[in-house]
C-alpha cells in the first residue's frame, strides 16, 4: 500500500484535532483512500506543552523549513493562522511542488489572489474547506456540486460567537455585555472579541465565498460590514413582537452584472430556516437557478469539526496524488486566467426592508413628523409600534418599511435625528422578508 507523507505546521487546537483524527480513524481512512497517511513531521514554536494526543518527540520541530524542504513530504498543512509567516510558508511549499491544506481564512481573504494564482502556475493543489463554515462542506458545494448553477443568492450565519450571543439574548433575555462575558468564560469568544462581534471574521469568510460563487477577485475592504455590539435587548424584544429574530448575516445577491455583498445584523422571519440556527452553529442558505434552495447546517468551528474539514482536503489531494494529477478542480472552480475583479453594488443602492427604533418625546404629532420625513424620502411604512410612556424620558416608536433604498434611508434618518422631538440616535436594522 502506498504511503503519502504529510507535514503539519501549527500544533495548536486545530492541529491537535487533525493529529487525533488521523490516529483514531487510521484504518477507516486507509480503506477509503487506498493508501496510508503518514504524518512525518510537526512544526510549532512550542513543542514542550502537553497536548491531548501523543506523538513521538522525533516528529516535533520548531523549524517549519524541515517540512517545507523535505522532499518526501507531499502535503503541507498550515494551521498557524495570521498573515506571516503563514503566507511565506505556503508559497515556499508550493515552489517546492508541495500541495497545501489550510484553514487560514484571514490569509486567503487578503492574499488569496496571489496564493491561488501560484497554486495554478506551479501545478499544485490547495485545499481550504476548513476556512469557511468549519465542518460544513460549503467550499466543495460551490466548486463542484453547484458548479452548473448561476447563484442568485447566498445568506450565511458564519460566525459562531456572534450567533451564540444573539441566541442567548433572544432566548434568555440577557444583555449583550452579559452574554459576551459568558461566552468568553466558556471559550466561545476570545479575550479580544473584536473580529467576531464586529463582523471581521465573517467578512473574511464572505470574501472567500464570493470568489467561489461568482468567479471573481474580491477586495476585502469593499465588503460592507456592521457588527452586533449595537444590538440591545429592546430591539431583540421588538423583533420578536414583529415576528422576527435577529442574526448576523453574510449576504451575497446577484443583481445583473453587480453583486451585493454585505454583513450586518438582520431581522429574519421566525419561520425561516436561518432564524432557527442557534448557539454556535453555522448555516448557509443558497439559491441557484437550477438547484433551487439549498440549506447547509453544522458546526462552524471547534477542534474536531474543523479537523474533519482539514482531513477532507488532505484525502482529496491524496487521491489526486495517487492518480498522478493535480488541478483537476481549480481552486476557485475556474482558471485564474478568467477570474477578474468583482463589481460590488455600492451600499447606497441596496434595496431592502428596514426596522427603525426612534427615541421620541411623548407628545401629539410626533408620529406624523417622522412619517412625513420618511415619505419625503420615498420610504413606505409597513408597520408601526408605539409604546406609551412608563416612566420619565423618551418613548420608543418602532417602524418597519417596505422595500427602500439605503441612500434614501440614511438621508431620512439624518434629518429625523436632528428633529427636536428625537432624544437619541435612531436604531436601524435591515430586514430580509419577501412578504414585505
What does this structure look like?
Strands 7, 9, 10, 11, 12, 13, 15, 16, 17, 18 and 19 form an eleven-stranded mixed beta sheet that branches. A six-stranded parallel beta sheet has the order 3-2-1-4-5-6, sandwiched between helices. Strands 8-14 form a two-stranded parallel sheet. With 436 residues, it is α/β, with parallel strands linked by helices. It folds into three domains: 3-134 and 303-339, 3-Layer(aba) Sandwich (Rossmann fold), CATH 3.40.50.720; 138-299, Dihydrodipicolinate Reductase, domain 2 (2-Layer Sandwich), CATH 3.30.360.10; 348-431, Alpha-Beta Plaits (2-Layer Sandwich). The protein is built from 14 helices and 19 strands. It starts with a strand and ends in a 5-residue tail after the last strand. Helix 4 (86-95) packs parallel to helix 5 and helix 5 packs parallel to helix 10. 36% of the residues lie in helices and 26% in strands. Helix 5 (105-122) links the parallel strand 5 and strand 6 (126-127).
Amino acid at each position: 500500500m502506498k504511503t503519502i507523507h504529510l507535514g503539519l505546521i501549527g500544533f495548536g487546537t486545530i492541529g491537535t484535532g487533525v493529529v487525533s483524527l488521523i490516529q483514531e480513524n487510521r484504518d477507516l481512512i486507509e480503506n477509503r483512500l487506498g493508501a496510508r497517511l503518514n504524518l512525518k513531521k510537526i512544526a510549532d514554536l512550542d513543542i514542550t506543552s502537553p497536548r491531548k494526543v501523543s506523538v513521538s518527540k522525533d516528529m516535533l520541530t520548531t523549524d517549519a523549513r524541515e517540512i517545507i524542504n523535505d522532499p518526501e513530504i507531499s502535503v503541507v498543512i498550515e494551521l498557524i493562522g495570521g498573515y506571516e509567516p503563514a503566507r511565506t510558508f505556503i508559497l515556499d511549499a508550493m515552489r517546492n511542488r508541495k500541495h497545501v491544506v489550510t484553514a487560514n481564512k484571514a490569509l486567503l481573504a487578503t492574499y488569496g489572489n496571489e496564493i491561488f494564482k501560484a497554486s495554478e502556475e506551479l501545478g499544485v493543489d490547495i485545499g481550504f474547506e476548513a476556512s469557511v463554515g468549519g465542518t460544513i462542506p460549503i467550499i466543495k458545494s460551490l466548486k463542484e456540486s453547484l458548479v452548473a448553477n448561476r447563484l442568485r443568492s447566498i445568506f450565511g450565519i458564519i460566525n459562531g460567537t456572534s450567533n451564540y450571543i444573539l441566541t442567548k439574548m433572544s432566548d434568555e433575555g440577557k444583555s449583550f455585555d452579559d452574554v459576551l462575558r459568558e461566552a468568553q468564560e466558556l471559550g466561545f469568544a476570545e479575550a479580544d472579541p473584536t473580529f467576531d462581534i464586529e463582523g471581521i471574521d465573517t467578512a473574511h469568510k464572505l470574501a472567500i465565498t464570493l470568489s467561489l460563487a461568482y468567479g471573481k477577485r474580491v477586495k476585502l475592504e469593499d465588503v460592507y460590514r456592521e457588527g452586533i455590539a449595537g444590538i440591545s435587548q429592546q430591539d431583540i424584544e421588538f423583533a420578536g413582537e414583529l415576528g422576527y429574530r435577529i442574526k448576523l448575516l453574510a449576504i451575497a445577491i446577484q443583481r445583473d452584472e453587480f453583486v451585493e455583498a454585505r454583513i450586518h445584523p438582520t431581522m429574519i422571519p421566525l419561520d425561516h430556516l436561518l432564524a432557527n440556527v442557534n448557539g454556535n452553529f453555522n448555516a448557509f442558505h443558497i439559491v441557484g437557478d437550477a438547484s433551487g434552495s439549498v440549506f447547509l447546517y453544522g458546526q462552524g468551528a471547534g477542534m474536531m469539526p474543523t479537523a474533519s474539514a482539514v482531513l477532507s482536503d488532505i484525502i482529496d489531494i491524496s487521491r489526486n496524488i495517487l492518480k498522478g494529477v493535480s488541478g483537476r478542480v481549480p481552486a476557485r472552480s475556474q482558471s485564474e486566467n478568467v477570474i477578474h475583479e468583482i463589481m460590488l453594488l455600492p451600499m447606497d443602492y441596496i434595496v431592502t426592508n428596514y426596522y427603525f427604533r426612534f427615541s421620541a418625546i411623548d407628545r401629539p404629532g410626533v408620529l406624523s413628523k417622522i412619517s412625513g420625513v420618511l415619505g419625503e424620502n420615498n420610504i413606505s411604512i409597513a408597520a408601526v409600534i408605539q409604546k406609551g410612556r412608563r416612566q420619565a424620558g423618551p418613548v420608543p416608536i418602532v417602524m418597519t418599511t417596505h422595500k427602500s433604498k439605503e441612500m434614501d434611508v440614511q438621508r431620512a434618518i439624518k434629518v429625523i435625528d436632528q428633529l427636536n422631538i428625537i432624544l437619541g440616535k435612531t436604531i436601524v436594522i435591515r430586514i430580509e422578508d419577501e412578504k414585505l
